[in-house]
Amino acid sequence: MKDLPSIPRYEVLRNRRTILKNPLPFHHHYFQKYGDTFRINLGRRNDWVFTRNAESIRHILQKNHKNYGKSSLQTKELAKYIGHGLLTSNGEFWRVHRRMIQPAFHKKKLEGLIRMMYKAIVTELKEVKVNAEQDIFPLMGDLAFQVVAKSLFSADNIRDRMQRLKEITIANQKMLIKEMRMPYLKWWFHLNGDIQKHLRLAVRARNLINGIVQERLDSKEEKDDLLDMLLSARYEDGKPMPRQQLIDEVMVLFTAGHETTANALSFTLMLLARHPEVQQRLYQEVKDIDFERGNSILALTQLPYTQQCLEESMRLYPPVYFMDRVSLAEDTLEGHVFKTGTVWLMSIYELHRHVDFWEDPDHFVPERFVADGKRDFSGQYFPFGAGPRMCVGNNFAMYEMLMTIAFLVRKYQLSTTREIKVHPLISLKPSEAFVKFTARI
Ligand code: HEM
């Protein structure tokens, strides 16, 4: 792999401020200059390889997935704040827990959660300010957090604790970003106590969750929510998950499930606000949909255009814009041999806008996702990842997003005077996502 084009260390250091603010233009520049796969020389033992090559991404995530694990960015750096749950573990430990947790997210199981989700959505959307431009990202953040909270813990007396949990989740993510983007200052973050402070916050979050779990066990109530499922899941020997593991899995579901959905919803609303003709078509589809009466699952299947809008929004703005893996053994890709321990950073953002795969890649064209059997994007479109580690909550997220968009567009006309701006942190967030909601008559 030594013959792969490589960005020298001094280039990374020279551009560190720009990279910290928004690394996407830096990546794009080098993808254009060097092609779909290049190396970053950080002068360390391990090599970092960036790719937007669809075949290599499929190879790593699907075909040869056994040779790749999550890198220490997740299994150590993120795990020190949220523990070792599905998202942050590898190998047999991950496989065993995935087998236990996945059944709770099957479509059939989710049907039982739909009403709870919808109630949480309606409650949160009471905060919509009519006739004034409003930053929708905090609103969508609260909505997505409450939907996960209500689906996990259907209790009514947890709002304040959930608010605290949300604040901690956000604060720790900010810290993690600083650590990841300025690894050369890690010694300073230790010395000035920043890391210890955030580790204490993580302990507080775990205590909050532990308290809620204990209340559930003491009440002996059966709730049919995600917590009940985690409590009743069993290892092959018939034993339940240890309490600390259960808390890790809950922390992971909050972290993985709320921000990604909030981002996708905010970008979709901005796109609809900027494309009145798409919004009008979507309105025609949702205007008579009623999730409260009748069969909510059936209603969700009647929203193909809304689904296309969400798919196209996640193509342009994939919340998980990067995925990382580390190789467990030597492997050959694109004619190069990569040694054990190579860290792969797969740019989903770049792949989703690659001119070889998408016509008019920078334009919002939901029609490209029409399910007419003629087009197949499965080899180049990965908003939820691919292979055995694909997002466990993808159906959950789609249901939640379909209901939220349908509810809002049925009730309001959306408009905006703003451009769409991205703010890439651990996930791809929007910045200044101001939308005006005007009540439909
Ligand atoms: C639009 C919303 C969402 C997007 C775009 C998204 C995207 C992703 C992606 C790309 C991965 C794979 C990461 C990798 O392979 O490195 C992933 C994993 C995961 N997601 Fe999601 N996700 C979303 C919503 C959710 C929700 C709502 C939940 C749960 C309530 C969830 C739970 C998880 C978990 C637990 C994993 C780890 C799975 C494993 O490694 O076995 N996600 N997600």
Instruction: Name the bound molecules.
Output: protoporphyrin IX containing FE
State which percent range the strand residues make up.
5-15%
Query: What's the gyration radius in Å?
Result: 22 Å
Return the CATH class.
Answer: Mainly Alpha
Side-by-side strand order of the widest sheet: 1-2-3-9-6-4
Major beta-sheet overview: 6 strands, mixed
In words, what does this structure look like?
This protein has helices spanning 9-14, 16-21, 24-34, 54-63, 72-82, 91-101, 107-124, 136-152, 159-181, 186-191, 194-219, 226-232, 243-274, 276-286, 296-301, 304-316, 348-351, 394-411; strands at residues 6-7, 37-40, 48-51, 68-69, 133-135, 322-327, 331-333, 336-338, 343-347, 412-415, 421-424, 428-431, 434-439. The chain has 441 residues and is an alpha+beta fold. It has a single domain (6-439), classed as Cytochrome p450. The strands form 4 sheets. It has a 6-stranded mixed β-sheet with strand order 1-2-3-9-6-4, with helices on both faces. It has a 3-stranded antiparallel β-sheet with strand order 5-13-10. It has a two-stranded antiparallel ribbon with strand order 7-8. Helix 7 (107-124) crosses helix 8 (136-152), helix 7 (107-124) runs parallel beside helix 18 and helix 14 packs antiparallel against helix 16 (304-316). The radius of gyration is 22 Å and the shape is globular. 40% of the residues are buried. The model has no long low-confidence stretch (mean pLDDT 92).
